[in-house]
Design goal:
Layout: E1 8-13, H1 17-28, E2 33-39, H2 43-53, E3 57-58, H3 62-66, E4 73-76, H4 83-92, E5 96-99, H5 107-119, E6 125-127, H6 137-146, E7 152-161, H7 177-180, H8 187-198, E8 201-209, E9 214-216, E10 222-224, E11 230-237, E12 242-248, E13 255-263, E14 266-271, E15 274-279, E16 286-287, H9 300-308, H10 319-338, E17 342-343
Helix pairs in contact: 4-5, 5-10, 6-8, 8-10
């Protein structure tokens, strides 16, 4: 690290949309943080990003960036296929790592990344968290601790992006398993949020369907598509509840992102960023008001820099958490492939 502990120099690998809109402004908002280099997929795109984002240095490739002696921390904004190799190289080079979600292509890569983190306890490794429930997490966790729901019986997660199926659309990186791995749409993101509230799944059965099995890639060739466009998962949770997850990109006209917790005494519903509750003996749902100090929000870059400076630990999200959601993602893929119930790998 820089001789001055308060000065942290960051290199960016992959200056995509989320990195531009979230991570670069968030890092620059921290005192003493400088973004000094960028490496994209080509020299041309690196030069464009440097000019557009006012970054003074351009690295010829990600390997040169992670090994540059003046860089203290690496922000990985690439697609998942590069998360593991860049993370492993950066940690070995003595750099702190903030890695875009999802953590890896598969569980094996995620475990390798977590082992590398444990081998370098002097370094901070953080994965970008699922953002949807950050504002209500502490409130839901408190209500569960207080027994507001009674006994938790069932969980429903329903996610739809509102789009109709478009057979003519080109192949996106999310539909390319070579780039996205076993990650299916936003399934892992929503599971991570559920995990924060009630813990992990122990077993599951999954069904998925890919309706357009070939799409045109950027190279002008047709590519096989194996990533589902609609998936349903039925899971047993370690807490004793049963959970169902439905995530779809083919339900045109319905835009929805919700988690519902059904208890013996009350129901909690999170939808469109709002938390409501229905209680036994009461009529309808009412808004749940957070207690003082429970309001949450996006502070990923602040937490990362504060953790490097020893001011706080990483909570959103650790590599260990990433391994857990990759275990779920891998179990979903295996269940869809084999048509049977799968035990979620213990971590």
């Amino acid at each position: 690290m820089s001789s001055d502990k308060q000065r942290i120099r960051v290199g960016i690998v992959g200056a995509g949309a989320n990195t531009r809109s979230r991570h670069i402004p968030g890092l620059r908002a921290q005192a003493g943080v400088e973004i000094v280099q960028v490496a994209n997929r080509s020299a041309e795109s690196s030069a464009r990003a440097a000019a557009e984002l006012n970054i003074p240095g351009i690295a010829p490739d990600w390997r040169a960036l992670v090994n540059h002696p003046s860089i203290d921390a690496v922000m990985i904004g690439t697609w998942p296929y590069l998360h593991a190799p860049i993370t492993l190289a950066a940690l070995e080079a003595g750099k702190h790592v903030l890695c875009e979600a999802r953590l890896a292509l598969n569980l094996a890569e995620a475990r390798e990344m977590a082992r590398a983190e444990r081998a370098h306890p002097e370094l901070i490794a953080q994965v970008v968290p699922s953002p949807f429930t950050l504002g209500v997490d502490k409130t839901v966790q408190r209500l569960l601790r207080e027994g507001f729901l009674g006994r938790l019986l069932a969980i429903e997660v329903r996610v739809a992006d509102g789009r109709f199926l478009d057979p003519a659309a080109p192949l996106s990186w999310r539909q390319d398993s070579g780039l996205s791995g076993l990650n299916v749409m936003s399934l892992g993101i929503w599971y991570e949020a559920v995990m924060r509230w009630v813990g992990e799944a122990t077993s599951l059965v999954a069904k998925g369907r890919t309706f357009v099995t070939q799409r045109l890639g950027a190279d002008g060739r047709l590519h096989s598509v194996r990533v589902p466009e609609h998936v349903s998962v039925l899971a047993d949770m370690a807490c004793g509840a049963q959970a169902s997850f439905t995530v779809t990109s083919v339900c045109g006209g319905i835009k929805l992102g919700e988690i519902v917790l059904y208890g013996s005494e009350a129901t909690l519903r999170f939808a469109d960023g709002i938390l409501t509750a229905a209680h036994r003996g009461e009529e309808g749902f009412r808004a749940v008001v957070p207690q003082e100090g429970e309001e949450g929000g996006w502070r990923v870059e602040e937490e990362f820099i504060s953790a490097i400076r020893g001011l706080e630990p990483v909570t959103h999200t650790t590599f260990a958490d990433g391994v857990k959601y990759m275990a779920f993602t891998e179990a979903v893929a295996q269940s869809m492939q084999e048509g049977r119930e799968i035990q979620v790998a213990a971590i």
